[in-house]
Here is the input.
Amino acid sequence: MSSVALDAPAPVGFAERIWRVNWGLVLVLTAIAGIGVVALYSAAGGRFEPWASRHAVRYGAALVLMLTVALIHPRVWLALAWPIYIISLVLLVAVDLIGKIGMGAQRWLVIGPMQIQPSEIAKVAVIMVLARYYHGLRKEQASQVLYTLPALLVILVPVALVMVQPDLGTAMMVLMGGGALLFVAGMRLWIFLAAAVTAVACLPVAWSFMHEYQRKRVLTFLDPDSDPLGAGYHITQSKIAIGSGGLFGKGFLKGTQSSLNFLPEKQTDFIFTTFVEEWGMMGAFALLALFALVLVWGFSIAFRSQHHFGRLLALGVTAMMFLYVFINAAMVMGLLPVVGVPLPLVSNGGTAMVSVMFACGLLIGVNVYRDAQLPWAR
Here is the structure.
């Protein structure tokens, strides 16, 4: 018998897999989704329809999906990373050709009774492929420019397809999430600096390709009072709602900006504002603390993983969750332009919830199989 076989850990049985599921993380995710139900119930004026009941049902189904994903051996996800990525690209191309147009953008595919947003799938697919790619590289290869180029291509192709829709927020999330994963995988700092300088130099070109409404969002971010009843209306009403909430909020179902429909997209992009107006700064801190727990657990799981694929997968999912929360919260407070990024498990939206729960399933699965031995793959 070889020394490799002697050193190999014993297979993890089903009972031990269940025990290794991070049930504390599952409980925190459920609490966040519960807050989403409460916020959506309030956004509908004290009714479960049309958002709160669907949100609860979606979470129940997504919870089953997450636990199923978590109990599947990571070698399966290692093998499926490229197929999932390619499918996401095909769906993105399909959106650009035959996608449904809504709110000035072409971001959705209608498949029978379902409406899906492929860009949400692409966020997770990019993380999976990058984790697989760097799992197959030696440490010295990961820092070389030659081996960085394929990884950059993996990121930039979906970014370009998402920008065509146009969806600036999701494109930036894919770009920054992928960049974060490249950094932790070992890409040298000077490459990031060179990319940053190139990006700044390309800003005039990017400005010329932006849609008129996207330019207005940037200009409004720089000077919100320049058009308070037009492009600046959303963020102005959001600031009023957050400010009026004070320390402890106006009380459940007592938010005026939301109930009187001054607050736009109160069930999706601005759900955080809806919640803070009623529950105040303390409610906001409580919700953000729950998200912080998710991030802490994510880093803990990544550092405990004995295989590189799992370590990168966990860090990628954790970075994705951070970007979701940071961009949405900063957006509704006027610290970033309004780019249409939902608050995970709180905003209304089926594809976003499924993709986030699938990603969390991958994260929990890394902990379940933290000492698994995976084959080399590129």
